[in-house]
Amino acid sequence: MGRRALVTGGAGLIGSHIVDRLLREGWSVRILDNLEPNTHRNGKPAWVPQDAEFIEGDIRHRDLLRLSLDDIDVVFHQAAYGGYMPDIAKYVEVNSFGTAQMLEIIRDDNLPIKKVIVASSQAVYREGAAVCPQHGLVFPHVRSVRQLVIGDFAVYCPHCGEETKQVATPEDAPIAGETVYAITKVDQERLVLTWGRQTGIPTIALRYACTYGPRQSIFNPYTGVIAIFCTRLLNGQAPVLYEDGKQTRDFCYVEDIARANVLAATTSALDGLPVNVGSGQAVSIGELATQIAAALNIPIAPIARGEFRPGEMRHLISDTTRIRSIGFTPDVDLSAGIARYLDWIRAQADVRDYFAEAESILRAKRIVHRVV
User: Fold this and answer.
1) Closest Cα partner for 83 from 42, 27, 49, 38?
2) Which of 7, 173, 236, 287 would you call most buried, defined as having the most Cβ atoms within 10 angstroms of its Cβ?
3) What is the pLDDT of residues 47-58, one digit of tens each?
4) CA dist., res. 338 & res. 213, Å (int)
5) Please, which pLDDT band fits residue 60 given cuts at 50, 70 and 90?
């Protein structure tokens, strides 16, 4: 396996930590990043290392993408447009088209790429796996707006309608994509894995759990719940919970996610597969908000205002059996990871609350609905 890497989105949260780890392990690294203003409001961040070649550009620009792929062994494709933003066309252009164009260039120009690892997401699942008292392990359907609008947030068995209990979700659970972002993440991973089978070039789709840690943008009010809660609290505002705050997620520290990427690049055991990467532990969003407030010593309780986002999963815990089979286990638990993130965010200037302004946009675009 060669040691020359291209990290698309290499100035972002996950990409930049992958870059750091690759450099520490002796790789030659090139970064392609368009410095998306929603995330990088002040331009190229100081953490982009001098030891990495940096190309500022957009993966939608074919000639620049071709240049970036020259003389590369492994592509870590992290570039994506993400979060709960109201855009539709841009998600498809960046995530779906950008990925397809990259694969087409590699194939048609016969580039000597030895592996492609794509950043997928737990968002590809339609709902987390569950257990029904009568039917055992089931894979529920997405909850309908008709159900959510009356304040019923439970997850029911698709066979008998009984209420279920959450369990860890394996990679063979049905994928669907119930938001525009999720649809394009499904596109990305299916394009990459299908292309890999067709070309014979090894590919892996890493389905990240909710990733957090230092360098998570403090400017983007549409993505990164821990960052959003922190900026709200530091500005004396209550964290806002959708539904009743009892929905659960799996959170994984960014350095663990980066380590999983490099591990996947240096083994063939996961080639051709979708792979969950997470902690395997569930935490409710309400508990998360309370934990962050306590860590900041800001006694402001979170508020649930009777709002929900259609297409959002109620529960998601990653079954990490597959990634653990190659020796991966997370090093940083949630409390330690939050402490590290808070140390970082306290050192940042201009920690403003951008969420309040974004809320009105999300309501106007019908990304957020209100319970009747």
Assistant:
1) 38
2) 7
3) 999 999 999 999
4) 7
5) very high
